[in-house]
Design a protein that fits this description.
750 residues; alpha/beta; hydrolase; 31 strands; Glycosyl hydrolase; Glyco_hydro_3_N; single chain; 18 helices; signal; Glyco_hydro_3_C
Length: 750
């Protein structure tokens, strides 16, 4: 017989239970051991994952698009930042905040919609790479990180370091050129700058995601050692220098397997050999399975509803419960995510939405400085530039120069203060809108050349533009090429009959300066007729002022090309772009038969003469480099030399060290081994040195997983660019040596 419990006892029990529950809910953070900031991030991650339920772990590995999606008939999660790239639920009861993600390669981007964020846009990634200045890249990254924090984001989907194998790639403007050392060092510095603001940066796109045509279905075919000495080496340098908290796997397939379920890339190369401790997220729409992807190393599905299914939603829970994905693997996924959050301050210094605290004038100055550092003077006949007060009548023609400067399209697009200066341009939808930042070169030039008459023509009628050119002392023709994510350009020509315009103007007045705002290299059939050419790239939200500063000589151009400019597409490894024009769902093969001979290496190997070589750029002053010495110091090759400014203006020289084996065989005759950007007053000199990473002296052996340096003589060359006929060189003998994947010596052989 059951004896009824007295009401007083029931009430007491309920009160006791409530008190215990309330005490647990209000438990001070100090009693949660993972909140102890004195502990290593890995230990904190282990402790908090142990305290999580299965469903809490699963929340961390599933990401949503942070914007409404009409095409998928979906609404953003309630907790996400409006019109953002992504959102991942946190675990509030354990003190783990949500992840708020934004595209941010060139600044804090915004998904299109009624309430876009207006932020500071850096110049294009190629422009930053053209500066050859890792300090400037770090400062640019720190600026983005600061704005991101104050917009309420703690994960930035930056930086991109896909090599420029294909000059027609519509996303080249986001990346850092064709050389693994330059690209890796520059992006690594930007990542470090971003993460200095206590947010997570993302290395992408892993790996070999080098064209947009059929990017989600194409299969890249490449030998492992060639990949290790090219695209993977660029990513590895960026990883080592930047230590990103996350890595984004790409859309494409690599040697048959999708990049986001490629165990060799994600488990073997990235996590085991490189020692990556953070988490791997998928690109938006790049997840294709549950069990294969999870077991192959994907830690987080991103951006639902982009994928065809919620692979890491209920299907992953079932897979874990059934043992198809081990519980230990799910724990590893969660541990990697929260470990990076602890490591980079996301938990201890949570973000708040406070855009009013952003110092936009200061950030604009950072963007302007970056643009000025990256502009490349390609031609300057008879000292046509800089513009002087002797030019009384100056014509500015084309390129929307009366309104602003061009930006690239796609997910990296930053919406500027002041809005789009040319909203009438098409397309207005993805990967648009075509954006013209409201920093007009015309207005900036008029402000700096107050004694001159600066007149504008839109360039739509070449005959009318030519008439204005004939009536002018100097002509500035602005030419644009819009490129964007999700598309490649059909060829390397300037679009919309701009070559015809430049031909007409240069024929009317040979004192014509062509200013290029492009997403990559273009052909120049008018080059002989033009008096000067300035490559301005996509110069960011202060681009008009930056261009005017360089044209007028307030700033001495110091950018150097981060890629080769071909004479024509016939010089490329693939004269016809594979798969172009794109056919939906086509499973195409892209054979990287050139292997590691990317860019200038291909031109050297094939003995081709480019339009402009890698590393090339002119200045308003002159430099001399001398005294090259090469020696081994503590087992590392070091090159030292002197740089002199022999001209009459202050300026900056980019000294470049190239390496070439005299007996051994590489993928190409030479490689970039190091670089140093030196700032000098007129008449000044400076001594400097660079240390060579030993991996740049060897070849990767896929069997032993070692970098092997062959015994023999090596030519060390000090040059101003890859085809510098005035370069000096020395020869040094190296003994055979081997290094592990991370460049650590294994032992020398004599």
């Amino acid at each position: 017989m059951k004896i009824p419990t007295p009401l007083s006892q029931i009430c007491a029990a309920v009160l006791l239970c409530c008190s215990a529950t309330c005490a647990q809910a209000e438990q001070p953070a100090s009693l949660q051991p993972w909140m102890n900031q004195a502990l290593p991030a890995a230990q904190r991650a282990e402790l908090v994952v142990q305290a999580m339920t299965l469903d809490e772990k699963l929340k961390l590995v599933y990401g949503y698009l942070g914007a409404d999606s009409d095409w998928k008939k979906s609404k953003r999660p309630a907790g996400s930042r409006p019109q953002s790239a992504g959102y991942i639920d946190g675990v509030a009861r354990l003190g783990i905040p949500p992840l708020y993600e934004t595209d941010a390669g060139l600044g804090v981007a915004s998904q299109p919609g009624p309430d876009v964020r207006q932020a500071t846009a850096l110049p294009s990634g190629l422009s930053t790479a053209a500066s050859w200045d890792t300090v400037a890249a770090h400062a640019a990254g720190a600026m983005i990180g600061d704005e991101a924090r104050k917009f309420g984001f703690n994960v930035l989907l930056a930086g991109g370091v896909n090599l420029l194998r294909e000059p027609r790639n519509g996303r080249n403007f986001e990346y850092a050129g064709e050389d693994p050392l330059l690209a890796g060092r520059m992006v690594g510095a930007q990542i470090a700058g971003i993460q200095s603001q206590k947010v997570v940066a993302t290395l992408k796109h892993f790996a070999l995601n080098d064209q947009e045509t059929n990017r989600t279905t194409l299969n890249v075919k490449i030998d492992d050692s060639a990949a290790r000495m090219s695209d993977l080496l660029a990513l590895q340098f960026a990883y080592e220098d930047g230590q990103p908290g996350s890595v984004m796997c790409g859309y494409n397939r690599v040697n048959g397997a999708y990049a986001c379920e490629n165990s060799y890339l994600l488990n073997t190369v990235l996590k085991q050999e490189w020692g990556f401790k953070g988490w791997v997220m998928s690109d938006w729409g790049a997840t294709h399975s549950t069990i294969p992807a999870a077991n192959a190393g994907l830690d987080q599905q991103s951006g639902m509803p982009f994928d065809l299914s919620d692979y890491f939603g209920p299907p992953l829970k079932e897979a874990v419960l059934n043992g198809w994905v081990a519980q230990q693997r799910l724990d590893d996924m969660a541990r990697r995510i929260v470990g990076a959050m602890f490591e980079h301050g996301v938990v201890d210094q949570p973000v708040t939405v406070a855009p009013q605290q952003i110092d936009f004038p200061a950030h604009g100055a950072v963007s302007q400085q970056a643009a000025q550092e990256g502009m490349v003077l390609l031609k300057n006949r008879a000292g046509l530039l800089p513009l002087t007060n002797s030019a009384r009548r100056i014509a500015v023609i084309g390129g929307h120069a009366d309104k602003g400067v061009m930006a690239g399209g796609g997910s990296s697009l930053v919406y500027p203060h002041g809005g789009n200066a040319a909203p009438e341009l098409e397309p207005k939808v993805w990967p648009g809108p075509v954006m013209i930042y409201p920093s007009a070169p015309l207005k900036a030039l008029q402000g700096k050349l107050v004694s001159a008459s600066v007149r504008f023509d839109d360039g739509r009628d070449p005959a009318r533009a030519a008439a204005l050119a004939r009536d002018s002392d100097v002509v500035l023709v602005f030419a644009t090429q819009w490129t964007g994510e999700g598309m490649d350009v059909p060829d390397l020509a300037l679009p919309q009959q701009q070559n015809a315009l430049i031909h007409a103007v240069t024929a009317a007045n040979p004192r014509t300066v062509v200013v290029l705002e492009t997403g990559g290299p273009v052909t120049m059939p008018w080059l002989e007729q033009a008096g000067a050419v300035l490559q301005a790239w996509y110069p960011g939200t202060q681009g008009g002022v930056a261009i005017a500063s360089v044209l007028t000589g307030e700033v001495n151009p110091s950018g150097r090309l981060p890629m080769t400019f071909p004479v024509s597409a016939a010089q490329l490894p693939r004269p016809k772009l594979d798969g172009y024009p794109e056919q939906a769902d086509a499973r195409i093969e892209v054979d990287y038969h050139e292997g590691a001979a990317v860019g200038y290496k291909w031109f050297d190997l094939q003995r081709l003469t480019p339009l402009f070589p890698f590393g090339f750029g002119l200045s308003y002053t002159e430099f001399a480099m001398s005294g090259l010495r090469a020696e081994l110091r503590e087992g590392r090759l070091q090159a030292s030399f002197e740089v002199r400014n022999t001209g009459k203006r202050a300026g900056k020289q980019v000294a470049q060290i190239y390496l070439a084996p005299l007996q051994a065989s590489w993928e190409a005759p030479k490689r970039l081994g190091g670089f140093s950007k030196v700032s000098l007053a007129a008449g000044a000199r400076a001594s400097t040195s660079v240390t060579i990473d030993p991996r740049l002296l060897g070849t990767f052996d896929s069997v032993s997983k070692r970098w092997l340096v062959a015994a023999g003589d090596y030519r060390i060359t000090l040059a101003a660019h890859a085809r510098d006929t005035q370069a000096s060189s020395v020869v040094i003998h190296l003994d055979a040596a081997s290094y592990d994947v991370q460049g650590r010596p294994i032992g020398a052989q004599h």
